[in-house]
């Protein structure tokens, strides 16, 4: 037996052998436990300081505070017939950001694109597919710019609606004697007039294309499904006419209601529900749910509603020139 084989085993960490690696708690787990600890500790603190007895705040009891107040459009100033408020401000911001990003990318196109250019090209490809799959080649060339613009414009409008900005003129605070509006998240889509104008524009457009392609009488006839004949036409025809006009309502309500409901949920879970019931503990307990809804709305709903509006625009325009 050799000397090496007969030598006693060397303990870890002795004679240059590295000690066995110890696997500790992961960073994500530490962060998660820390956040939970702060949240649970806050619950205990709120119970100690304020108890668990509900009492309505004076502003709530006197009806001076209402959750819908944050969606009210107070006129800041007028320029001729135009009344400037936070709704107009958000539309101007949306227009400026959309044009600014597009011009910036157009002037700095690279063979190896950066992250911003990659994102814009992804939106371009998505809008291109929406157009190609629902329109013929001639109509696709004509209406792709409009469909892409609608998609990006609504997307930008929705996204900036989740950035807190000092636009809540109904609640102000003083800085060196000046009344500064409080921070608030607000989306232009939560005012029904904005999606209504967009939907009305799309409705007029696809109706115009349908009448242009088929003629007035032919377009009305084209609304009927193929193969429907006989007495049942008297039942189906009014339904089809009504459903055509209901597209205007569905486009409007889908965009408006989803954004409005999302912002209301964020507000309630973020603290307003606790104010309404008069219990600070409720606001703190529901805060994580408010953050989760905020992330869900900003990441998924903002893009999804822009996509739905844009693809329905392509479908309606394409369907208006089809023959059943």
Outline the structure in words.
Helix content is 66%, strand content 7%. The radius of gyration is 29 Å and the shape is globular. It has one domain. The strands form two sheets. A two-stranded antiparallel ribbon has the order 1-2. Strands 3-4 form a two-stranded antiparallel ribbon. It is mainly alpha-helical. It has ten helices and four strands. It starts with a helix and ends with a helix. Helix 2 packs across helix 10 (280-320), helix 4 (86-107) packs across helix 6 (137-160) and helix 5 (115-134) crosses helix 6 (137-160).
In sequence order, what are the helices and strands, one letter per element? HHHEEHHHEEHHHH
Mean pLDDT: 82
Protein structure class: mainly alpha
Relative helix content: 55-70%
- How can the largest sheet be summarized? 2 strands, antiparallel
Number of domains: 1
Distance between the termini: 94 Å
Tally the helices: what do you get?
Answer: 10
Proportion of beta-strand residues? 5-15%
CA radius of gyration? 29 Å
Strand order of the largest sheet: 1-2
Tell me the overall shape. Answer: globular
């Amino acid at each position: 037996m050799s000397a090496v084989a007969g030598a006693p085993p060397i303990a870890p960490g002795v004679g240059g052998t590295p000690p066995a690696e110890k696997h500790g708690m992961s960073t994500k787990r530490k962060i998660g436990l820390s956040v939970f600890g702060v949240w649970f500790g806050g619950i205990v603190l709120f119970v100690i300081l304020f108890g668990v007895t509900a009492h309505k705040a004076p502003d709530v009891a006197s009806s001076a505070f209402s959750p819908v107040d944050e969606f009210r459009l107070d006129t800041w100033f007028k320029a001729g017939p135009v009344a400037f408020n936070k709704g107009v401000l958000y539309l101007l911001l949306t227009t400026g950001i959309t044009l600014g990003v597009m011009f910036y990318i157009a002037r700095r196109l690279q063979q190896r694109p950066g992250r911003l250019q990659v994102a814009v090209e992804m939106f371009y490809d998505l809008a291109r597919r929406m157009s190609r799959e629902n329109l013929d080649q001639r109509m696709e060339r004509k209406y792709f710019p409009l469909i892409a613009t609608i998609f990006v414009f609504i997307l930008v409008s929705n996204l900036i609606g989740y950035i807190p900005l000092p636009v809540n003129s109904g609640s102000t605070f003083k800085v060196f004697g000046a009344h500064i509006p409080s921070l608030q998240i607000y989306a232009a889509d939560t005012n029904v007039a904005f999606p209504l104008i967009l939907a009305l524009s799309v409705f007029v457009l696809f109706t115009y294309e349908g009448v242009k392609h088929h003629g007035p009488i032919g377009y009305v006839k084209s609304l009927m499904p193929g193969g429907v004949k006989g007495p049942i036409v008297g039942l189906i025809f009014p339904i089809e006419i009504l459903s055509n006009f209901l597209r205007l309502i569905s486009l409007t309500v889908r965009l408006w209601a989803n954004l409005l409901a999302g912002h209301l949920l964020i507000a309630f879970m973020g603290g307003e529900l606790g104010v309404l019931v008069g219990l600070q503990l409720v606001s703190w307990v529901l805060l994580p749910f408010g953050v989760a809804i905020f992330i869900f709305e900003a990441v998924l709903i903002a893009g999804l509603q822009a996509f739905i509006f844009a693809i329905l625009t392509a479908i309606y325009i394409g369907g208006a020139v089809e023959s059943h």
